[in-house]
UniProtKB/TrEMBL annotation:
Coiled-coil ranges (or none): none
Species annotation: Friedmanniella luteola
Domain HTH lacI-type per the UniProt entry, residue ranges: 3-57
PANTHER family documented for this protein: HTH-TYPE TRANSCRIPTIONAL REGULATOR GALS, LACI-RELATED TRANSCRIPTIONAL REPRESSOR
A Pfam family annotated for this UniProt entry: LacI
Name assigned to this protein: DNA-binding transcriptional regulator, LacI/PurR family
Domain of life: Bacteria
Classification lineage: Bacteria, Bacillati, Actinomycetota, Actinomycetes, Propionibacteriales
GO MF term set: DNA-binding transcription factor activity; transcription cis-regulatory region binding
SMART domains listed in its UniProt record: HTH_LACI
Length: 331
């Protein structure tokens, strides 16, 4: 006989409403309670009746997560976190690529307004090119990343502080000619460049425009191409601060191919702490933040917005830390 919500509630020693909150993702539940309910769901082989649920509450049980570029290792790790967090809530997570396009973002917002999906988690590239703007009729939306729009809930890491700390680490280890690699039109780059510049200024080091290196994209190929182009016309810096680990992977490959040794000839650092960062040669010093926490908090905020569209919007800064590995050394 098929298990019911009441069966699960008795087994987990919680109320049926708490079971519904866990299954539907409608309200935040403490980790301990969620674990008890999930254990009961698994042990009783509970299967939610999604058709009945949709007819009852007008929801699809589907949310969308839209990222600018799905080809990067960072995108793979963050989408995995969202799929896992969604599964724990009984949600289907639809993964989309916005490509930084206002038209694509607008299409996704329209889907949510038409109730084809229940809500949207969006990672825009620039506020100016985002479809999420003041005065626009918005469905339930949570924004992640560096673009902040006060009209919606927002989760991000403090990029300025993180780059200030990362660059400061290099300064403290005796590096003086420190380059920043990753220049492109994005809010992430603008904030990371600000932190980099603040660290150099605080150390009394000059800001040299030649050490701010543009790229054609935040890909490994883009990183390799940019560092080779730079070194064809400029001397080797003491250190390279790469705006993402994906860029840093390309930089490490290009430097190795051209006969440079990291960290003996120069130090290299990244940002994101993707799983591959621990296995580059040498392992990469980088900025870490917990992507599973991002996904869990984003879906909690989205559930709150779905249930209470008038709730005041919030902006939450997530913690980060520097992970020291073997790609840096004192000068």
């Amino acid at each position: 006989m098929r298990a019911t919500v009441r069966d699960v509630a008795r087994h987990a020693q919680v109320s049926p409403k708490t079971v519904s909150n866990v299954v539907n993702g409608t309200f935040p539940v403490s980790p301990e309670t969620r674990q008890r309910v999930e254990d009961a769901l698994r042990e009783l082989d509970y299967v939610p009746n999604l058709s009945a649920r949709g007819l009852r509450n007008g929801r699809t049980g589907v949310i969308a997560v839209a990222l600018p570029d799905l080809s990067t290792p960072y995108s793979a790790s963050i989408t995995r976190a969202f799929v896992q967090a969604g599964a724990r809530r009984g949600l289907t997570v639809q993964i989309e690529e916005s490509a930084g396009s206002v038209e694509r973002e607008a299409q996704l917002l329209s889907r949510a307004r038409s109730h084809l999906i229940d809500g949207l988690v969006l990672n825009p590239v620039l506020l100016e090119t985002s479809a999420v703007q003041p005065g626009v009729s918005l469905p339930p939306v949570v924004m992640i990343g560096e673009v902040e729009q006060p009209a919606v809930d927002h989760l991000w890491t403090d990029n300025v502080r993180a780059l200030r700390e990362l660059t400061g680490l290099l300064v403290d280890e005796g590096h003086r000619r420190i380059a920043l690699l990753g220049g492109m039109p994005s809010a992430s780059y603008q904030l990371r460049r600000q932190g980099y510049r603040e660290a150099l200024t605080a150390a009394g080091l000059p800001l040299d425009p030649a050490l701010e290196i543009d790229v054609h994209g935040w890909t490994s190929a883009g990183g390799a191409e940019a560092v080779r182009s730079h070194l064809a016309h400029h001397p080797l810096p003491d250190a390279l601060v790469c705006c993402t680990d994906t860029l840093a992977m390309g930089v490490l490959s290009a430097l190795w191919a051209d006969g440079y040794r990291v960290p003996d000839d120069l130090s290299v650092v990244g940002y994101d702490d993707i799983p591959e960062a621990a296995y580059t040669v040498p392992p990469l010093t980088t900025v870490h933040f917990d992507r599973q926490v991002v996904a869990e908090m984003a879906l909690d905020l989205l559930a709150r917005r779905i249930n209470d569209p008038s709730h005041p919007s919030s902006s939450t800064v997530l913690p980060h830390r520097i992970v020291r590995r073997a790609s840096t050394r004192p000068r």
